[in-house]
Specification:
Blueprint (H helix, E strand, L loop, with lengths): L1 E8 L5 E9 L4 E5 L6 H8 L7 E6 L2 E2 L4 H7 E4 L11 H11 L4 H14 L15 H15 L3 E5 L7 H12 L4 E5 L3 H7 L2 E6 L2 E6 L1 H4 L6 E6 L7 E3 L2 E7 H9 L3 E3 L4 H8 L5
Parallel strand pairs: 3-8, 3-9, 6-7, 7-8
Antiparallel strand pairs: 1-2, 1-4, 4-5, 9-10, 11-13, 11-14, 12-13
Helix pairs in contact: 3-4, 3-5, 4-5, 5-6
Length: about 280
């Protein structure tokens, strides 16, 4: 995926994307960032659901503005706001989706069976989706993406609402996808487990991009120190004050009763998503 000066301004004046440009080099990519960072807008534009205000992007050489019909045949997108039709069963959803993509009835039936078994919904294939839990509905959409055999799969927060066991089950399914993958997620463990490249967005811009190790390079050799007491110059996250120190300095803070923790992708949010206390 190549992105060129992509900008999106909504009718209410909100600037969701501020002219971002980048090249996504790896086959499995996570787009992370706090709410309102522009992740979903980016997914919707790349999947040709939404037109940008300016700029364009290429997906495997196809232009999202000129080649949208060809792009739609090659990708599968499960948006964050996707909702099933309550009266239809999981099997009926699968058949409608797959035949609409051009599969024969026989192929669609076989792919639906395999995908529903893969996500643990086969026993519920004839149950109206109104009777399924929220997590099972999310599994259905993942099954649709799995069965589509698209070259590129976009998943917008695919495991939101799932319990830990179901989340791990879906991770296993996603790992089995042969397609190129771009997903948004608020679960940092998910981003590190499922993808090779991280795109960290904040306020409509790309702040960091690369492997998990590369995007965390600024924290190299450091640990996170947390305090429940106010400390001048530290980052405030809720009722916790945070600072980053070298591993050598960390022992001094441990002796003073501070909590010391290892660096994770969460620290990108702490570093760029909140203000430093004066």
């Amino acid at each position: 995926i190549e992105i060129f000066s992509l900008r999106k301004v909504y009718e209410n004046g909100i600037v969701a994307l501020k002219g971002i440009s980048t090249r996504i080099k790896r086959r499995r990519v996570s787009v992370i960032g706090k709410n309102g960072a522009g992740k979903t807008t980016l997914i919707r534009i790349l999947s040709t659901q939404l037109e940008p205000t300016s700029g364009y992007a290429l997906i495997n050489g196809l232009n999202i503005l000129r080649d949208e019909d060809r792009i739609r045949k090659k990708l599968s997108c499960i948006p964050q706001e996707a909702r099933p039709i309550g009266m239809l069963t999981p099997y009926e959803h699968m058949m409608l989706y797959l035949t609409a993509r051009g599969m024969s009835f026989r192929s669609a039936s076989e792919e639906a069976r395999k995908a529903l078994k893969e996500v643990g919904l086969w026993d519920f294939r004839d149950t109206p989706t109104d009777e399924l839990s929220g997590g099972m509905k999310r599994k259905l959409f993942v099954a649709m993406a799995l069965a589509s055999n698209g070259e590129v799969v976009f998943l917008d927060e695919p495991t939101t609402g799932l319990d830990p066991l179901s989340r791990v089950e879906i991770w296993s399914v996603i790992k089995g996808l042969s397609a190129e993958l771009l997903l948004t997620t608020h679960y940092m463990e998910e981003a590190q487990s499922l993808t090779e490249e991280i795109v960290f967005m904040n306020d409509g811009e790309i702040i960091r991009q690369g492997t998990p190790e590369e995007v965390l390079a600024e924290f190299s050799g450091k640990v996170r120190v947390e305090s429940r007491r106010p400390v001048d110059g530290w980052i405030k996250v809720g009722g916790v004050y945070i600072s980053y120190v070298s591993r050598e300095e960390a022992q001094r803070y441990v002796e003073q009763g501070f909590d010391v923790k290892q660096i994770t992708l969460d620290d990108l949010f702490f570093r760029y998503g909140v203000e430093i206390e004066p």
